[in-house]
Design goal:
- This protein is of the alpha/beta class.
- It has two domains: 123 residues, Response regulator (Rossmann fold), CATH 3.40.50.2300; 90 residues, Orthogonal Bundle (Arc Repressor Mutant, subunit A), CATH 1.10.10.10.
- It is built from nine helices and eleven strands.
- Strands 2-1-3-4-5 form a five-stranded parallel beta sheet, with helices on both faces.
- Strand 8 and strand 9 form a beta hairpin.
- Helix 7 crosses helix 8 and helix 7 crosses helix 9.
- It starts with a strand and ends with a strand.
Length: 222
C-alpha cells in the first residue's frame, strides 16, 4: 500500500513517515500543496494524508482538485490532519470531500487505525478479490488463503503478492516490486525482494512464484 503524505512541518512529517513505514506502508512525503498534482499523476496511491495549511497551494484546494478530477483520484481516501479544531472547521473539511478528519496533536496509533479503516473502505468499494490457483487474496480484509486456509503474511509480503496477483500474466521487474514497497528517499534493502519472494514460496508453495532470469518474477501458470 502506498500513501501520499502532504505535511509542511518537517518534524511532524518525518515522524509520520517513519511511523507509517513501520506499519509496512510505502510513504511519499511532500511539504507543499502545489507538488501534489504531479505526484498523483505519476504514482498510484491508496490513501492521502493532507494538512490544510500548506505553502504553495492550500490543502483545501488540493482536496477540491482531487474530488473534481474524476476517475480513481476522485475516489481516493483522504484523511485531513490539521490543527483547525472547531466544529465549523470539521464540517467544512468533510464537506470538501475528506473521508476523515484528525486534529493535531493526535496519537500515532489512532492515525494507524484511521488509515487502516480508510484503506478497508476504499478496497471494499474498488478492489475486487484476487485469485490464482489455490491462492485467494482479499484486498479489503488484507487476507490471504491457500486452499481456503488462512495464511499469515507480513505487510510487505502481502504487498509483493498483491502486485503479482494484479498482473498474473506479467513478469514484474525487481524495480516494479520495489515501487510497491518503498517511498521516495526510503533506503531500499539490496535483497529485500528476494527475501519476500522466498518467504512467499515457503508459505504458498515453491512453484507458486517463478523467477525469469534478468527480467523478474511472475506467477506460475495454472
Amino acid at each position: 500500500m502506498r500513501i501520499l503524505l502532504i505535511e509542511d512541518d518537517p518534524s511532524l512529517g518525518s515522524s509520520l513517515q517513519s511511523w507509517l513505514q513501520m506499519d509496512g506502508y510505502a510513504v511519499d512525503w511532500l511539504q507543499r500543496g502545489d507538488q501534489a498534482a504531479a505526484a498523483l499523476a505519476t504514482h498510484a496511491y491508496q490513501c492521502v494524508l493532507l494538512d490544510r495549511g500548506l505553502p504553495g497551494l492550500a490543502g483545501d484546494a488540493v482536496l477540491q482538485a482531487l474530488r473534481g478530477a474524476g476517475g480513481a483520484q476522485a475516489r481516493l481516501p483522504v484523511i485531513v490532519i490539521t490543527a483547525r479544531d472547531t466544529l465549523a472547521d470539521r464540517v467544512q473539511g468533510l464537506d470538501l470531500g475528506a473521508d476523515d478528519y484528525l486534529v493535531k496533536p493526535f496519537d500515532l496509533e489512532e492515525l494507524s487505525a484511521r488509515v487502516r479503516a480508510a484503506l478497508r473502505r476504499g478496497a471494499a468499494q474498488h478492489a475486487p478479490a484476487l485469485r490464482h490457483g489455490a491462492v485467494a487474496l482479499d484486498p479489503a480484509a488484507k487476507r490471504v488463503t491457500l486452499d481456503g486456509e488462512p495464511v499469515t503474511l507480513t505487510a510487505r509480503e502481502f504487498a509483493v503478492l498483491q502486485a503479482l496477483m494484479r498482473h498474473p500474466t506479467h513478469i514484474l521487474s525487481r524495480a516494479q516490486l520495489e515501487e510497491a514497497l518503498y517511498g521516495w528517499g526510503e533506503e531500499v534493502e539490496s535483497n529485500a525482494i528476494e527475501v519476500h519472494v522466498y518467504n512467499l514460496r515457503r508459505k504458498l508453495g515453491s512453484r507458486f512464484i517463478v523467477t525469469v532470469r534478468n527480467q523478474g518474477y511472475g506467477l506460475a501458470a495454472v
